[in-house]
Amino acid sequence: MDPELATTIAFYVFALLAIAGSVGVVANKNPVASAMCLVATFVAVAGLYLTLSATFLAAVQILVYAGAIMVLFLFVIMLLNLSHETFEGISVRRTMGGAIAFAFIFISIGLLWGTGPKPGEAMSVRPGTGLEIGRTFLKDYVFPFEMASLLLLVAMIGAIVLARRPKLVGGDR
Amino acid sequence: MEGLIQTIVLAPFVSVALLFLLRRQLPKSAAAVIGCGAVLVPFLCTVAAFFQFDGTPVTATLTQWMTGSVLNVPLAFRLDQLSLTWTLVVTGIGFLIHVYSVGYMHEDPSFVRFFTYLNLFVGSMLCLVLGDSMVLLFLGWEGVGLCSYLLIGFWFDEEENAKAGQKAFVVNRIGDLGFLVAMVLVFKQFGTLNIADVNAMAAAQAATLDPTLVTSIALALFVGCCGKSAQLPLYTWLPDAMAGPTPVSALIHAATMVTAGIYLVARMSIFFAMSPTASTVVAVVGCATALFAATIGLRQRDIKKVLAYSTVSQLGYMFLALGIGAYTAGVFHVITHAFFKALLFLGAGSVIHALHHEQDAMRMGGLKKYLPITHKTFLIGSLALAGIAPFAGFFSKDKILGAALYSHGLPQLLGVFGLITALMTAFYTFRLYALVFHGEERFGHGAHGHADHGAHADAGHGHGAHDHAKPHESPLTMTFPLMVLAVLAVLGGALSLPHFAHFDMLGKFLEPIFAPAYAVLGAPHEHSVAQELGAMLVSLVLAVGGAWYGFSKFSEGPGKQAEHSTKGLPFLLENKWFVDEIYNVLVVGPMRALSHLAGFFDRLVVDGLVNGVAGMVRSAGGWIRMMQNGALHTYALLFILGAAYLAIVLL
Amino acid sequence: MSVFHYYVVAAILFSIGAGGFLLRRNLLVMFMSVELMLNAANLCLVAASSSFDLARGSSFALVSIAVAAAEVGVGLAIIIAWFRLRPSVDAGDLQELRG
Q1: Which helix (H) or strand (E) holds B640?
Q2: What is the CA radius of gyration of chain C?
Q3: Where along chain B do its domains lie?
Q4: Which positions 577-616 of B are in contact with A (Cβ < 8 Å)?
Q5: Are B140 and B131 in contact (CB under 8 A)?
């Protein structure tokens, strides 16, 4: 099969999957089902990365999002025992929110149309492989890279402190 | 060499940090060792630097302090002949006074705090002396002012002391303004604040510089000096500064800080040399201060006040010397004065210590047999202050008077006034000496109800029980510095003997510093041997006469002066010509009225405006706060709307 | 495929995320919506990166993923802490910051 055609097909498949998944996240009443839809979305976005030949990022996306983050979500859902379905009433404000979100799609696409690249414009095939990303980080952006790791450390400590039992927080003084 | 300079400056500050951080943990002995060590180390470094010094100034840069497009101030310290001389005096005498303080303050509960301040002072003074730019000099200048304030008000639980500290600070601030103005003028003209560069440029452009500007710079500098070195009309803080502990008076208000003004004039001597007007002002103010303070000194009762007024008077001499172009003589007098005045103050401290904080000379007398070492050293100090050969003060004072008397016009007249001052100095010095050490014993009977001076006895020293015990000689930590200073007060004159002796170490050493100034003024006048001997003879006769008269009149006791006089000149003198009262009426009163007015305006108009704006904001906030209803969704909605709006507007 | 298509997909994903955040009251689902928006932004970055032939966009996306991970960790910890205080994950109950 023509690689160009294969890429196109893959793009549409993944794009539709991502959109369907995200709709599922928002529309499901059961948080566990939402989480599952979110996994699908993440995988689909990873696929989109692959069509852009960003292989390294696709791998990271699967590992971090679909792996770590989703596990954390599910873990919390289970921990808090939230799998029961919740009914959320419809209010004026929520209707308005939905309308705005819907309008947002068109606003952003309209803006893209006006100022962004045109649909026909050709695309390069080098979005940054793992090698290039590594070079960028360790040559030009060493400091932000280190800051990101520091941020993760801080977040880790913060999460531990926050999720600790309140009794312990009071008890260590 | 650079390392030595850095050590000199940094050691006191390191000690300050140590003492401050460990103030609760350190025992007194450890604090004393750290405090004294932090001055001994710089002293030894200075001595080492002195022997390594080959005549070319050395600059040690620690780091960049301020960096800008027009103003660059490095944290750099410059050692040349003048700063080396001063550093030697500051660290050497500073060390002796630190040692003395160990004995003097050993029962004070705030012992560690005292040494912290004292070290901070030494550090600031070294920064002042060694700083290579006017900014650093100013930093040190303010630093010593701050320490002076802290140390005058050291026993701040008494309101008098706290007020004296404030007075010193405020009066100094008037002078500091002058210094700042001078700094701005210098920067505007020369585009740098590096002292060596400024001096070099001023000397190079001597012919083309605007004379008005030079005079303005010199006079503005001198205003600063008047504040710091207690010259007319800003001298009033110095006698009040005697409220501080006596070692402070010796270190700050006699030997080192008050000479900062002399240092500044000597440092920037080229400006004064180029401006005859400014030089004349300096000379006249100096001479007037010398005479004026000497008259007040004649009738003071408080042992420290007499010394304080004599300090003001001697500082006046130094400015007189600088004003008539006898720069070396002025610096020489600074050095000898540091020796003998520190000695006198420490001796007075020893007396005060022995009498449990009695300071009124009328209540002393006959201490000769109780305090033998203090007596001998105090006598040496008095002889030096009175200007009797061969003690140190004689040579330096004679240099100044000789230079004044053998010039023409106004300086000659000033020299005559200087001679009169010398007579009075000798008189009051020996009046004090006689009142304290000779005559009948007037201490001990019911004296301790005296509220003014006796009150620290309990605050600082806890032995009220031996009030009536006989006075005893001070411990070795106090007498040792006295003895060293006494030796210096005897031999100090050898630094710069009269011309005919062909032995002028100090003059030769300082020559490069004052060469540019003398290039403008013309070489200093050489006097013939006969002229020099004549001047020496006259001043010696006057000094001996004054001293003899003062001693013989008061060796039996204060006589009529035991009572406060109520009329005539003595009344005026005893009350210091009422200068403080006049200042209160003329300056402090109107200032206070003005500040009340300003306060009224501030409350009504400025605060009204501010409160009005605040009220508007508050009511607006009351409305807007409705939006913050705590519901996450409202925030999210507003946020997204805002983002959409921004996207539309920006793209 | 042109970069425009990717942008459109990103815009749709973002809008659905924003809509979910506004519509839902379950804190966890709102949180998932935030993740959707982040993913959309990352997609934009990577697409831009390939259109400009630079590795910077991808690097930025990588940092963004790290930040998202940190954010999820802390956010979920906050939800747990909140849940202990009051057993509810309804954002409507969160009104303590009312001014």
Answers
A1: helix B632-650
A2: 16
A3: 2-574, 589-650
A4: none
A5: yes
Cα→Cα distances B308→A137, A171, B242, B319, B376, Å: 70, 63, 7, 17, 21
- The dihedrals phi and psi of B276, each to the nearest 5 degrees, come to -60, -35
Angle at A166 between CA A165 and CA A169, to 5 degrees: 100
Chain B positions touching C25 (Cβ under 8 A) are 633
State what percent of residues in chain B have pLDDT above 90: 20
What gap in Å lies between CA B147 and CA B124, rounded to an integer? 8
Contacts of B206 (CB under 8 A, 6+ apart): B270, B274, B520
Q: Is the peptide bond before B390 cis (omega within 30 degrees of 0)?
A: yes
Note whether B428 and B418 are within 8 A (CB): no
B465 band by pLDDT with thresholds 50, 70 and 90: very low
Q: CA–CA separation, B394 vs B391, rounded Å? A: 6
Query: Does pLDDT of C40 surpass 90?
Result: yes
Q: Which residues contact B458 (CB under 8 A, 6 or more apart)?
A: B464
Residue B81 distance to chain A (closest CA, Å): 49
**B627 contacts on C by Cβ (under 8 Å):** 99
**Cα–Cα distance for residue pair B310/B425, rounded to 1 Å:** 7
Structure-block tokens of residue A83: 């799998």
Helices (H) and strands (E) in chain B, counts: 28, 2
- For the domain made up of A1-85, the CATH class stated in words is mainly alpha
Give the CATH fold of the C3-87 domain.
Answer: Helix Hairpins (1.10.287)
Q: Which of residues 31-90 of C touch B (CB under 8 A)?
A: none
Half-sphere exposure of B219 (CA within 13 A, CB side): 13
Quote the tokens at residue B318. Answer: 């130094």
Distance separating alpha carbons of residues B471 and B474, to the nearest angstrom = 9
SS (H, E, C) B243-279: HCCHHHHHHHHHHCHHHHHHHHHHHCHHHHHHCHHHH
Q: CA-to-CA distance for B559 and B406, rounded, in angstroms? A: 40
Largest CA distance in chain B: 103
For chain A, which residues make up each domain, given as ranges? Answer: 1-85, 128-173
A113, containing H or E segment: helix A92-115
The continuous run of DSSP H or E covering B61 comes out as strand B58-66
Would you say B15 and B118 are in contact if contact means Cβ atoms under 8 Å apart? no
Most confident of A118-132, B108-122, B568-582: B108-122
Q: Where are the alpha helices (DSSP H) in B53-130?
A: 81-104, 111-130
CA nearest to B184, candidates B176, B175, B193, B194: B193
- Give which of B73, B39, B89, B45 is closest to B488, Cα–Cα: B89
Both tokens of B390, joined, read 């061969």
ipTM computed for the complex: 0.89
CB contact under 8 A, C94 and B632: yes
pLDDT 10s digits, A48-61: 998 888 888 899 99
Domains of chain C, by residue range, sit at: 3-87
**Which residues of chain B does A96 touch, with a Cβ-Cβ cutoff of 8 Å?**
637
